[in-house]
């Protein structure tokens, strides 16, 4: 009898010994709905509302609903673009600071119901809901607490209005994955409250605890976003960049939406943060959040978008890319083209995981169920963990033979809290072990980008952590080179520099107008172009044979001897060969001493390129002089459509000799003094 009893007991004892328990959580940890949100990683923002029609970023609130009239609105096009781009949801500006509502709210007349769109019967939130459902996307709501239209803003009655509207939005449109509360205005913020003197105390006015409770009750699965969460926090800038050190933890109770010191002090989270409030990086694909035809030439380049991707998703943050939907009601063709380029590039970068064919070992394992092989099994529930108290751990990947790679991806099993605070990545190359990167935090996902390394072994050492670490995934990739049009930069002396984002990609160029190819001159160092020439340049990756589009830059005489005739010390910005700096001339003109008598055949003008351009010249006179006193008109006219398309303007005229030139503004688009970002001449036919 005893024998029968002892045997099962022995088995039981053996089992309890060999099956270790999961590591204890390191608080704070994500809630269930935060974990589901983490899975989304990448989703779209749509800024489309009254500002689209008033051409503003922050409307005043006195706009007429009659102005809201998209001609071809198609929420399905938005959803298709987002889905094709690999995004998992869309957050829509249901109400922005100007107070206009995209749904027929029962609590205001300032909405689509009084607009000509769909004869006042439209409901854009419903249309987006249907589109999201059709394309398998989640839907989120941006709701601006600040309201320039509402007469009661600043009084307790407005809080009731806000809650009534939130109730409509969170009851009538199905599941909402995120509620986005903007921190703008309210008296204390650095956004100031321009044109708004109804200052409120952002900390107390909105009575956030009760507003949050309402959202929670109506949409228990939704995360709420603001500077301070409560569930997801702002990354602290609008460039789409998280930080080398980015924690999911935040001292939440010290933060409120719109606090001036937030970006510097809190945005990267804190190691000892009390709550799980992970970062979300929001950025627009154009300079503005809303559509402005004058930004059609400023859609972010592929190189910029790739940087955004790696600096957000690759740094423990979600990524929210904004499409400023245009007046037709569509995502603009140029924006679609760029976002799809990003999708293709990211797919290529992560096409093949080299780690899957490597032998993997960990210096310590917690035991059965927590083996290091779990980081390669493609399952997010399984993970590697070390024994309690074992902080320092080294994971080694052995490829068996030399492999080339330039990306390393690593993920913590964040359900048990973010732990790692120091790591080193090293590779065993032909010359021995080499350090690739020394870093701090990992979190939900960390992706390291580095130049190509050829190595047969890779070592990831966790040097410091809040508790014994764990990892959900490791990946190693060889991303193809980014082969994009080179940037041509010329300085005032005539020195030309040609730049590409990747060091190992060749730049080839010609100066005689012929198409550059593999045989052309390779760019090594900056060179002087003294005479007018047509520079054509391409980027070529020798390894893959990929070639960029050709950049064509017309280079006229250098500006080495030029001087602006003015007492203003910054006047030289108009001739510094940098269109991103400008000079505002109080008397609406610029006089330039060319330093020598020159045969002219035309001139060029770049209007200011900053976000809120002012002093864009729309009508001009261009004159030449030998002595700077007696002037002769060489051209006169208008720059048509320059406000909407503020690119370089080129004007030609019959040959004329001059030592001085004068460009006078007859009219600027906003009536402000003329601004000159860059003035140049044309001396050849
Ligand atoms: C900011 C707002 O003021 C901008 O207009 C935009 O909506 C951006 C996403 O958030 O705080």
TrEMBL record:
<dbReference type="GO" id="GO:0004560">
    <property type="term" value="F:alpha-L-fucosidase activity"/>
</dbReference>
<dbReference type="GO" id="GO:0016139">
    <property type="term" value="P:glycoside catabolic process"/>
</dbReference>
<keyword id="KW-0326">Glycosidase</keyword>
<comment type="similarity">
    <text>Belongs to the glycosyl hydrolase 29 family.</text>
</comment>
<dbReference type="InterPro" id="IPR017853">
    <property type="entry name" value="GH"/>
</dbReference>
<dbReference type="InterPro" id="IPR000933">
    <property type="entry name" value="Glyco_hydro_29"/>
</dbReference>
<dbReference type="GO" id="GO:0006004">
    <property type="term" value="P:fucose metabolic process"/>
</dbReference>
<dbReference type="GO" id="GO:0005764">
    <property type="term" value="C:lysosome"/>
</dbReference>
<dbReference type="InterPro" id="IPR059177">
    <property type="entry name" value="GH29D-like_dom"/>
</dbReference>
<dbReference type="Pfam" id="PF00754">
    <property type="entry name" value="F5_F8_type_C"/>
</dbReference>
<protein>
    <recommendedName>
        <fullName>alpha-L-fucosidase</fullName>
        <ecNumber>3.2.1.51</ecNumber>
    </recommendedName>
</protein>
<feature type="signal peptide">
    <location>
        <begin position="1"/>
        <end position="24"/>
    </location>
</feature>
<keyword id="KW-0732">Signal</keyword>
<dbReference type="Pfam" id="PF13290">
    <property type="entry name" value="CHB_HEX_C_1"/>
</dbReference>
<dbReference type="InterPro" id="IPR000421">
    <property type="entry name" value="FA58C"/>
</dbReference>
<dbReference type="Pfam" id="PF01120">
    <property type="entry name" value="Alpha_L_fucos"/>
</dbReference>
<dbReference type="InterPro" id="IPR057739">
    <property type="entry name" value="Glyco_hydro_29_N"/>
</dbReference>
<feature type="domain" description="F5/8 type C">
    <location>
        <begin position="539"/>
        <end position="684"/>
    </location>
</feature>
<keyword id="KW-0378">Hydrolase</keyword>
<dbReference type="InterPro" id="IPR008979">
    <property type="entry name" value="Galactose-bd-like_sf"/>
</dbReference>
């Amino acid at each position: 009898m005893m024998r029968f009893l002892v045997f099962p007991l022995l088995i039981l004892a053996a089992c309890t010994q060999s099956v270790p328990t999961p590591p204890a959580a390191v608080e704070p940890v994500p809630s269930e709905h935060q974990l589901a949100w983490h899975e989304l990683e990448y989703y779209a923002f749509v800024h489309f509302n009254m500002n689209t029609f008033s051409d503003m970023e922050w409307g005043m609130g006195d706009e007429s609903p009659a102005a809201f009239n998209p001609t071809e609105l198609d929420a399905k096009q938005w959803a298709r673009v987002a889905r094709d781009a690999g995004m998992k949801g869309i957050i829509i500006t249901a109400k922005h600071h100007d107070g206009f509502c995209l749904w027929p709210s029962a609590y205001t007349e300032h909405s689509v119901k009084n607009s000509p769109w769909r004869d006042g019967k439209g409901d854009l939130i419903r249309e987006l809901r249907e589109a999201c459902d059709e394309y398998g996307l989640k839907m989120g709501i941006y709701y601006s607490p600040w309201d320039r239209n509402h007469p009661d803003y600043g009084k307790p009655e407005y809080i009731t209005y806000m809650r009534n509207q939130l109730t409509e939005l969170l009851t009538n449109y199905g599941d909402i994955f995120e509620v986005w509360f903007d921190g703008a205005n309210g008296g204390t913020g650095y956004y100031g409250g321009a044109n708004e003197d109804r200052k409120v105390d952002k900390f107390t006015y909105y009575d956030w605890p009760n507003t949050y409770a309402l959202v929670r009750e109506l949409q228990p699965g939704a995360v709420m976003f603001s500077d301070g969460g409560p569930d997801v926090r702002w990354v602290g800038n609008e460039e789409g960049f998280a930080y080398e050190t980015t924690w999911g933890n935040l001292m939440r109770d010290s933060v409120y939406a719109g606090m001036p010191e937030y970006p510097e002090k809190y945005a990267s989270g804190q190691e000892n943060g009390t709550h799980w409030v992970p970062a979300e990086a929001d950025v627009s694909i154009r300079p503005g959040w809303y559509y402005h035809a004058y930004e059609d030439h400023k859609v972010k380049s592929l190189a910029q978008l790739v940087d955004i991707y790696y600096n957000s998703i690759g740094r423990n943050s979600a990524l929210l890319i904004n499409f400023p939907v245009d007046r037709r009601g569509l995502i603009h063709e140029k924006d679609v083209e760029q976002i799809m380029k990003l999708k293709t590039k990211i797919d290529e970068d992560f096409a093949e995981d080299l780690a899957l064919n490597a032998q993997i070992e960990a210096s310590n394992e917690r035991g059965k169920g927590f083996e290091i092989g779990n980081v390669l099994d493609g399952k997010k529930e399984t993970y590697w963990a070390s024994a309690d108290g074992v902080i320092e751990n080294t994971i080694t990947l052995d490829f068996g033979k030399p492999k080339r790679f330039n990306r390393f991806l690593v993920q913590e099993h964040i359900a048990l809290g973010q732990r790692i605070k120091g790591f080193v990545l090293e590779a065993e190359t032909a010359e021995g072990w080499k350090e690739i990167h020394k870093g701090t935090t990992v979190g939900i996902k960390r992706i390291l980008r580095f130049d190509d390394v050829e190595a047969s072994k890779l070592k990831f050492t966790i040097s410091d952590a809040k508790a014994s670490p764990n990892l959900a995934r490791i990946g190693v990739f060889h991303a193809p080179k980014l082969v994009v049009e080179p940037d041509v930069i010329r300085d005032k002396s005539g020195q030309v520099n040609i730049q590409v984002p990747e060091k190992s990609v060749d730049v080839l160029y010609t100066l005689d107008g012929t198409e550059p190819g593999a045989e052309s001159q390779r760019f090594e160092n900056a060179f002087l172009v003294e005479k007018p020439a047509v520079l054509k340049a391409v980027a070529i990756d020798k390894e893959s044979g990929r070639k960029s589009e050709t950049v064509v830059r017309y280079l006229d005489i250098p500006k080495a001897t030029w001087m602006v005739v003015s007492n203003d010390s910054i006047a030289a910005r108009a001739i510094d060969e940098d269109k991103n700096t400008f000079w505002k001339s109080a008397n609406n003109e610029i006089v330039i001493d060319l330093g020598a008598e020159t045969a002219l055949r035309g001139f060029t003008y770049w209007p200011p390129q900053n976000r809120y351009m002012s002093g864009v010249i729309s009508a001009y006179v261009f004159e030449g002089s030998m002595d700077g006193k007696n002037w002769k008109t060489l051209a006169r006219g208008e720059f048509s459509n320059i406000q909407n398309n503020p690119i370089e303007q080129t004007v030609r005229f019959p040959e004329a000799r001059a030592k001085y030139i004068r460009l006078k503004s007859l009219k600027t688009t906003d009536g402000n003094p003329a601004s000159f970002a860059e003035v140049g001449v044309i001396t050849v036919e």
